[in-house]
Write a structure and sequence with these properties.
This protein has about 800 residues and is α/β, with parallel strands linked by helices.
Length: about 800
């Protein structure tokens, strides 16, 4: 199958009206590729309306006719509002014929197969309409009826026969190469060609089954929620979205009847290599939950869930031997009949076993037990609720176990138990205020500190100073944000040291050579971490490292960068990185890339977010070149000043990277993008101060050939001094995309001429600051201010988290 193909599933709430259909088309334009698969449910309440119509057929013909007409008008209105010309006519004709055929049916016609055929129309209409809308928007698409390839036999919970379905799907994919396929969810066909509905959550189940059969890399289920939260956000205001959820935790949630996931949906995920992501179609950038297969060690509860309308089946016997036999019989019978309980409690002293079920299935399980010949008194009790704390490691977390039990004090508890898997603590209560209880448990269990793990890439001038500063500020930082921050990794271009228990900052450099592992790929070493968040700090100038930014995002890592390469890369590369962080709900902060500790990027972004428009930006963006040209008055050769700056750590390791203007150009491109201007690096006119004959020399040879540099710059200085001016290396950008970086001769009283050594100055002209530009001025180079900028971004990230 095509590598990288994805599948997107949209539920009825995502297709509720014409506006929702347009929104889905916009999502697919941004998030899907040409051969992706799309599985759709019936629009809005279409399936419920068809069920209502079927029930009215045997009761009142007139009301049945009105009900069908209402549904016809709804579907017709969708077509008329979304499509133009021939495409609309074609779909309206098909609708007319189908509703005419439905209108000919009577209650006596309604065999189970015919009912399934009727109820499958909603998905059919959605797939045709969305495919036509995508084609109208220049996204080649075809509608595909899942009954052409999905095979299943009728049952209470039909299972797709993957062996029979796979070759049929492969044939359909081969026929429609180069098209997005919009596939009907919820239904398959049996050996006789009859429609088989896949039951509760059938569309989600069919989506993951089709995804597994097609070998897609990811299935994204788009609905009206962004994913899995630490509790129902309608009940708990500060419930947080979980960006990553283990597959076994998701399966436990589904087993406990949480509405966001169903165990049948997860089966194909567990049996294949596909990733599963949950996302909100109304707010695509509001975050997501990715269900991951990695079974990293769990630290405790992640989610508090509840369920009303719970029933208890109580089985009573006399004698310890009978109880043991009953327990063994249930252990065989219930899994075999797919009737596992939500929770089970055994009371040895009373000879009683309690099984908790949803009210929906309790009567069916009661009949099953009665027909099985079990020798026990069986009693059905209703009026119960259930509250559970779900998460790998929860039963071994003494803090969470104690907190859960404490909140149950004074509640009408029937029993408390642990799931056999160890993935949940479950309490079954007689009717209680579950909303208040969920709030209390959530607050009790999750008020503990978040644990943040830090990985430092680069251990040179800036990296070493950041380690010192972090060591000094760590306690204050943790107190300020109520979080713990632990350095767990240090890496350079050739080696890395990862210790998930923590690396003392004072040992990070002195012990690096003894502890480091060879290689540059340290991501796999983080696979077993148990931190709430991981943050990478890139203080290098490495292009290779910047090319891994998207991998950091998709692996769930946040990024703080002083590295300018990605921010000033070609537009498509830059946008791909931005997109990766947005789509994974991770943060990329990079204020240190421009002006070191000066709040330049923050200010420009705040202006734009406040409704202002940036017109022009100019200034001196290089602290190194600022220092050099403040000192360069002819009393010392330029090369001698350059060597002084290099020895003091004011330049890049190779000072030619300062002199060639590339550093200033990168800052100008980053600032332009923050200003909302689409500037490409090659659009910037850059004057390099490095003579061509010195560009390819070794660093030592470059310094030895300093007189060549001196001769050229002395001539420029002499000319400027003759005109009563001074030399400054200036960057300029306007809203028309004119961008220039180079050496200018300025009047001594000019704002850009009067700076302290190492100072940067940024003059921002905007709609609000047109006559009197907003000026930011201060030290723009040096290890102290750059390390401070990184710590500032870490504070900012902590606030975002």
């Amino acid at each position: 199958m095509t590598q990288g193909r994805q599948l997107h599933k949209f539920g009825g709430s995502s297709l509720a009206d014409a506006g929702c259909f347009r929104n889905v088309a916009d999502i697919l334009l941004q998030y899907s590729d040409a051969e992706d698969l799309i599985v759709v449910s019936a629009a809005g309440k279409t399936t419920n309306r068809l069920i209502q119509w079927l029930s009215l057929l045997n009761q009142d013909g007139r009301l049945a006719h009105e009900s069908l007409q209402d549904l016809r008008n709804f579907q017709q209105h969708l077509v008329e509002e979304l499509l133009d010309g021939g495409e609309a006519d074609e779909l309206l004709t098909a609708l007319h014929l189908e509703f005419s055929a439905l209108g000919q049916l009577s209650g006596s016609d309604m065999t189970p197969a015919r009912q399934a055929w009727v109820l499958g129309h909603g998905e059919l209409w959605s797939s045709r309409l969305l495919a036509a809308l995508l084609s109208q928007k220049a996204m080649a698409a075809r509608a595909l009826d899942s009954r052409l390839f999905l095979r299943a036999e009728r049952a209470a919970q039909p299972e797709v026969d993957r062996g029979r379905s796979l070759p049929l799907l492969q044939n359909e994919l081969a026929q429609h190469s180069g098209h997005r396929l919009v596939i009907t969810g919820f239904m398959a066909a049996n050996q006789g060609g009859e429609t088989v509905l896949l039951g509760r959550n059938g569309s989600d189940y069919s989506a993951t089954v089709i995804g597994a059969l097609a070998g897609v890399s990811r299935v994204t289920i788009w609905s009206d929620v962004a994913g899995v939260y630490s509790a129902d956000p309608r009940v708990v205001n500060d419930a947080c979205l979980l960006p990553l959820l283990r597959l076994d935790e998701a399966d436990e949630l589904a087993r406990l009847a949480a509405p966001v996931l169903h165990s049948r949906t997860l089966q194909p995920v567990a049996q294949s290599a596909i990733d599963l992501t949950l996302r909100c179609s109304q707010q695509p950038e509001s975050g997501s939950t990715r269900v991951e297969r990695v079974l990293a060690s769990g630290r405790g509860a992640k989610i508090i869930t509840s369920l009303d309308d719970v029933c208890l089946l109580e089985l009573s016997v006399s004698g310890a031997r009978s109880l043991t036999q009953l327990t063994q019989t249930l252990a065989r019978l219930l899994p075999q009949k797919q009737a596992l309980p939500l929770a089970q409690h055994v009371e040895t002293d009373t000879g009683r076993i309690q099984l908790a079920y949803t009210a929906e299935v309790a009567n069916g399980v009661l009949l099953l037990l009665q027909d099985s010949g079990i020798h026990a008194e069986i009693r059905l009790r209703d009026g119960f609720t259930m509250v559970a704390a779900v998460g790998a490691g929860v039963v071994n977390n003494p803090v969470h176990c104690h907190g859960f039990q404490q909140q149950l004090k004074g509640q009408p508890v029937e029993f408390v138990t642990e799931a056999e898997s160890g993935l949940s603590l479950i309490a079954v209560l007689r009717q209680a205020d579950t909303q208040a209880l969920v709030q209390q448990i959530h607050q009790s269990l999750f008020q503990a500190q978040k644990r943040i793990g830090l990985i430092l890439c680069g251990k040179g001038n800036i990296g070493s100073r950041w380690l010192e500063l972090f060591g000094e500020e760590k306690v204050a930082l943790e107190k300020r944000h109520g979080m713990s921050f632990t350095l767990i990794g240090v890496a350079d271009s050739r080696r890395f040291w990862i210790d998930l228990q923590g690396i003392p900052t004072e040992r990070a450099l002195t012990q690096f050579d003894n502890e480091a592992t060879g290689g540059s790929d340290w991501l796999p070493a983080l696979g077993q971490h148990d931190y709430d968040e991981l943050v990478v700090l890139d203080v290098t100038a490495s292009k290779a490292l910047s090319e891994r930014y998207s991998d950091f995002a998709s692996s769930g890592l946040h990024l703080i960068s002083a590295n300018k390469v990605a921010g000033s890369a070609p537009g498509d590369v830059y946008c791909a990185v931005v997109d990766a962080f947005e789509k994974s709900s991770r943060h990329w902060l990079y204020n240190a890339t421009v002006g070191a500790g000066l709040p330049v990027n923050h200010t420009v972004k705040d202006l734009r977010d406040s409704g202002d428009t940036i017109i022009a930006v100019s200034g001196i963006f290089s602290g190194t070149l600022s220092w050099l040209f403040q000192q360069f008055d002819g009393s010392l050769p330029f090369s001698q000043l350059l060597e002084q700056a290099w020895q003091q750590g004011l330049t890049e390791p190779d000072p030619r990277h300062d002199l060639d203007g590339s550093d200033v150009m990168r800052k100008l491109v980053i600032l332009a993008r923050e200003s909302g201007l689409a500037l490409e690096p090659e659009q910037v006119k850059v004057e390099s101060l490095v003579p061509e004959e010195l560009a390819g020399l070794s660093l030592d040879a470059f310094f030895e050939q300093g007189p060549v540099l001196d001769e050229r710059l002395q001539a420029r200085l002499t000319k400027a001094q003759r005109e009563g001016k001074v030399l400054r290396y200036v960057a300029r950008l306007d809203k028309n995309g004119q961008a220039v970086v180079g050496l200018d001769a300025l009047e001594p009283e000019h704002a850009l001429a009067n700076l302290l050594p190492c100072d940067n100055i940024f003059a921002i002209e905007s709609r609000w600051y047109r006559e009197n530009p907003l000026v930011i001025r201060g030290p723009g180079a040096g290890r102290d201010v750059t390390a401070g900028a990184l710590l500032s971004d870490l504070n900012r990230l902590a606030n975002l988290l």
